[in-house]
Amino acid sequence: MKKVHGDFLIGAATAAHQIEGNNTNSDFWAMEQMEHSAFKEPSLGAVDHYNRYRQDIDLMAEAGLNAYRFSIEWARIEPEQGHFDEKELEHYHDVIRYCRSKGIEPIVTMHHFSSPKWVIRQGGWENEGIIEAFKKYCVYVIKAVGSELTYVCTINEANMGLQMADLVRTYMKNMKQDIQVGVNPEFYANMKKTEEENIRVFGTAKPEDFLSARTEQGDQLIMRTHEAAKHAMKAICPHLKVGITLSLHDFQPDDDEASRKIAQKEWEKEFIRYLPYITNDDFFGLQNYTRKLIGKEGVKGVPEGAEITQMNYEYYPEALEHVIRKVAESLEIPIMVTENGIASTDDGRRISFIKTALDGVAHCIEDGIHVIGYMHWSLLDNFEWQMGFTKTFGLIAIDQNTKKRIPKDSLRFLGNYDWRID
């Protein structure tokens, strides 16, 4: 097998809100505190990465990783519109400098799901004003730290809103069926209470946070926001390599024409539709966790008897290689795997997942596909959004009482994988 070059980036990824703690000016913090919150529990101090980032970066370096993808939290940098916090900017500047001092490439994501609360009060990610607001935030950050960065991701999983819209449509369809047969008669009553609380907190019954079910217009707005931010940042620091990340599945159709057509339609909706916005980017951030089987009626469930993760995804690390190859058919820019991993309490299965996934990456490189890095999700067991702290994706476990870091065997396995240097 061809070995990859020594400048190949191999590391782990995180998101600020999930690990830092006390992100009090963000929309997610506000939603977590609500009486009718959809969150299992609030993030509170999360895993205190805000104060312990040096320790966490040390563990990465000691394990042999050479890259760290993390996000800068907009709600910390600009807690109120037009008010930028220099102290918070300096915090992230120090994270970047500390990565460099440890031989770790800092890969910054400017937006990873959470937004300032004021953004949502102004219409959120369905409001045309998001383009200028996000651009100003990016410009402020890059003017200060851009000279010390190489890779910047503008927006994490920019296509997540349309995926959420599909989930909401399915959920609402099922809920209506349940209500008709009397299974869940309190559904609409609870929804009404939530809307009333949203009005008090966000000024609207249906706040448009980044993970809200996206409209077609809103989906295009996100990509226009990406373009505007990219051009603005590169105008300040032309050396920057700027891209975006998308959540992609390995669509596998049954062996018939109807299934193949449905799989192609799903792929076009999840990836092809974004090509006009990303073809001229400097790299593409590819994020994959599993496959989806497609039949004549559409997406099928996980095969009976298949191993599943804590997220109820099928354990299928082979998906990554398949998706890289599929992306490369339409996109010529370098590919960085910005997320790939599993939620599991069995670290042995995580190691097996990593090995199979990285073998797939190596096969792609051997065939001439330009893959420049692999970021495992996640560095730390963390706050998994609405599911709280119950899902363990991390290479490092966290004692929630003491915040003690407990490196797993998978961390060192990833950092010492023997094909990464030629």
UniProtKB/TrEMBL annotation:
Molecular function (Gene Ontology), one example: beta-glucosidase activity
Q: Which UniProt keywords apply?
A: Glycosidase, Hydrolase
User: Pfam families of this UniProt entry?
Assistant: Glyco_hydro_1
**Gene3D superfamilies the UniProt entry points to:** Glycosidases (3.20.20.80)
GO BP term, example: carbohydrate catabolic process
InterPro entries the record matches: GH, Glyco_hydro_1
Indicate yes or no for the key word NAD: no
Q: Which family does it belong to?
A: Belongs to the glycosyl hydrolase 1 family.
Entry protein name: Beta-glucosidase
